[in-house]
Amino acid sequence: MDWEGQKLAEQLMQIMLLAFAVIAFSAGYFTASFQTMILTYAGGVVLTTLVTLPNWPFFNRHPLKWLDPSEAEKHPKPQPSVNVTTKKKSIKK
Q1: How far apart are CA 86 and CA 15, in angstroms?
Q2: Where is this region: Disordered (predicted)?
Q3: Which of 63, 76, 68, 46 is nearest to 5 (CA)?
Q4: Which of residues 19 and 55 earns the better pLDDT score?
Q5: Within 13 Å, how many C-alpha atoms sit on residue 34's CB side?
C-alpha cells in the first residue's frame, strides 16, 4: 500500500465508522433495542475492516519509484553538518 493509499484507507475507515455509528444509533433508537444498535454497529465494523484492511488494488495507484542500487552508489549520502554551538547562559542571582 502506498502513501496515498494509506491516507485513503484511513479516511474511508473514519467516514465508514462514523456513518455506521449514526445508522446504528438511529436503528437502535427507533426500534428501542440496544441489541439492534450493537449488532448494526458490529456489522459496520466488520464491513469497514473488509474494505480498509486488505491491500486492495485501488490503494496502490501511486507507487513509489525507488532508486536502483547501482545508481545510488554514484551519489554520496549527504553528511550532517557540525555547526552546533553551545553557549551556556550565565545565571544572575
Answers
A1: 49
A2: 70-93
A3: 63
A4: 19
A5: 0
For residue 93, the model assigns a pLDDT of 59
Model pLDDT for residues 20-79, shown as the tens digit of each residue: 999 999 999 999 999 999 999 999 999 999 999 988 888 888 888 877 777 777 777 777
**6 touches 52 (CB < 8 A):** no
DSSP structural state of residue 51: H
**Grid cell at residue 62:** 501511486
pTM of model > 0.85: no
Q: Environment class of residue 40 by beta-carbon count within 10 Å: exposed (0-12), middle (13-18) or buried (19+)?
A: buried
- Residue pair 9/1 in contact by the 8 Å Cβ criterion: yes
Task: Output the nine-digit C-alpha cell for 12.
Answer: 474511508
- Distances, alpha carbon 69 to alpha carbons 30, 64, 66, 72, 73, in Å: 62, 15, 9, 5, 6
Q: Is 24 helix (H, G, I), strand (E, B) or coil?
A: helix
